[in-house]
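explain this.
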Amino acid sequence: MSKSTAEGEPIHVEDADHLDELIAENAVVLVDYYADWCGPCKMLEPTVEEIAAETEAVVLKVDIDELQALAQDRGIRSVPTLEFYANGEQAERLIGVQDKSNLVEIIDDLS
């Protein structure tokens, strides 16, 4: 399993290729689509960071303002949107602030 940052920290996605590469390289991936101006995104951020630190999932952060074309290609219409991938395949998509226990349960099911 490879991570391009310190163990247990969210990885900030640079572009679509970077996102695809990270999804392909890791067994379980949580992608957090967010925006700096988004209040619910800020509420969700500590939960996402805890999940990165406490679970096997690789957590990716996608700034929809920085990567507008990527967000558009992925059909992201509102933030926060969370996508879960297992072995390169999208397994789940949730929109809005989520309860940590629900997110951990999904990751456990995919692991």
